[in-house]
Amino acid sequence: EWLAQARRQLAGLIGATSSHCxxxxxxxxxxxxxxxLGLLQNGDHVISTQAEHNSxxxxxxxxxxxxxxxxxxxPCDEVGWVDVQRASKCLRPNTRWIVVGHASxxxxxxxxxxxxxxxxxxxxxxxxxxxxxxxGYLPIDVQEAGxxxxxxAGHKGLQALPGTGLLYLCSELHPQLQxxxxxxxxxxxxxxxxxxxxxxxxEVGNLNLPGxxxxxxxAGELQSEWSQGKxxxxxxxxxxxxxxLQSMAGIRVLGQSAQPAQQTATDWIGVxxxxxxxxxxxxxxxxxxxxxxxxxxxxxxxxxxxxxALGTGQSGGTLRLSPGHHTTIQEVDLVLTAMAEIVGA
Length: 345
Hints:
The chain is α/β, with parallel strands linked by helices and 345 residues long. Helix content is 35%, strand content 15%. It has helices at residues 2-14, 28-39, 54-66, 84-88, 113-123, 142-145, 209-227, 235-246, 281-292, 306-310, 329-343, and strands spanning 22-25, 45-49, 70-74, 95-101, 126-130, 149-153, 165-169, 251-253, 272-276, 297-299, 318-321. α1 (2-14) runs parallel beside α7, α2 packs parallel to α3 and α8 runs parallel beside α11. The model is unreliable at 258-262 (pLDDT under 50).
């Protein structure tokens, strides 16, 4: 019953026409691999982007080697945005899939899914969206956005337990998905060739029941909040953090456009990456943790290609701060005070 409820709640959250289109997974990485390895075939041409997480980049790279798929990674700009017009120049007669992350986990920049959906329709391709960074923060309607496949982790904006993920697959693709793993499913146990039908093609083996329960509860609570208009409460803290850091000399906020007047608060999720003059990002993370009790992540953030556009690869990446649903203004001000002391502002 909890599994059925989780499917219903998640389907309602993303605007799916049926709860049968939802499968549960163990992580965003799991469901992305299930989709990419289960759908892409030899000879397929795929358009993706330089801004993707390694959970997209690495399966696509592996499929290039093992199945001979062809992939074009469209460059992003210094903000982390990808121009769909540039992507349109990569179209080929065998373009079957477009794979795009809804938002960058390095800069926080949000891609225009409507434009990507139009491109997919233009060439008859299917649109696969990695919503791990946005699910729970930004409303997503798979029908309205023209999304054929949506994969996401459950522990981020959705606030479910770690070790959870969901995969939405439009009904037309259910028969095409080849299983990532096979084994026990609890049905047709007399058959050794059973267990490949959707959603068992993803949910083989024992599911993480506590995680499933957390997904059901989290999705239900989020829908209740959104029905009351509480969709943007996290933006205040994020905007205060971004603007406060941008005002300090010696701090570069990654993703800051050269034309900030053209940006709005809706262009970003709660990811703020910075570089600080004369500071190694890893040493800076240690100082923030040990001296101020502030946890931040330093490095390349499992995103191999975007640092070419940002110019941060050779310096070891960025320092990333990630305000969430429950981040307070007081906590943001603590970070700003710490950074002011560090840079001597």
